[in-house]
Amino acid sequence: MIEPKGFIQAGLALLFVMAGSPAIAQTQGRIAPAAGLETIQVRENVYAIFGAGANVTAHVGEDGVILVDSGSTATAAQLVAAVKAISAKPVRLIVNTSADMDHIGGNEVVGATGIEMNPDLFADEPHATVLSHESVLTRLSGDDKISSELWPSETFTSRVRSMYLNDDAVMVYRMTGAHTDGDTVVLFRKADVIATGDIIDLRSFPVIDMKKGGSIQGELDALNRLLEMTVPAMPMVLKEGRTLLVPGHGRVSDYAELVEYRDMVTTIKDNVEALIAKGMTLEQVKAANPTAGYRSRWGKESGPWTTDMFVEAVYSGLKNPVKP
Ligand SMILES: [Zn+2]
Hints:
By secondary structure, this protein is an alpha/beta fold. It has helices spanning 4-19, 22-27, 76-86, 101-104, 107-111, 134-141, 216-229, 255-277, 282-287, 295-298, 307-319, and strands spanning 30-34, 37-43, 46-50, 56-61, 64-68, 91-95, 129-133, 154-156, 160-165, 168-174, 184-188, 193-201, 244-249. The protein is globular.
């Protein structure tokens, strides 16, 4: 697990020595809290903002601000302040990694501070482009309790949607069917940062929301694809390079932690599979404690995503696998 402060200070110290850049050295990695949210600089032009519901990743540059997720509605004004504290440029693009309210809740308020990627000269009210997988729009528009102001303005269904913004290749990958049927991850290829959405939730076992099309098979596939995209550090060589991961929830992380998370999910899946092969019912599988060894670190006995709910999702996913 990365301690962001230590890592960033070490990283910036090295950058300072190498590039002699006082502007970077002065940032110290941790930005003064804006409206109660915590912002950490993870790369020269990439920031992770914590405390607004889901983690929000901000990529800044000449074209404006790209955000991955927009947090909760209740914290939208705080997020606007936190984004203004890192860049004076308008928000141009918000990518939603799922249809969860703590990821899309700021779309309206935060988006209203920005302008489209391709500005519409005739629009009365400019608004940042909000991009997601099509399933996110389907979910949101199918729920009358959710205002249409929160809907994405642009959707895609292809395996990857890529664009060049802020002098970086921004690659939005479809990873649907893991946490939900609308999952995407965003790779900033030059910055070498991936915003993973809730495929990685470091607070708990991964949330496999079966009601919204998530599955254990999809979750494992997504974690394995993320591993292919993530380059580890080389411990014996004095190089700073490695891919950094901003999870949907929890601290900034890297390859080593992703391997651990993937192995944990794989082991539990194998355990449940072996218990099913013995003919056990769900109750018997739960009683056999298939998360042993991981439960104290990742398990929750109460709250929105308990160990029992995770085991149940794994069990049902293995009993009734989703056809791709
Ligand atoms: Zn989330």
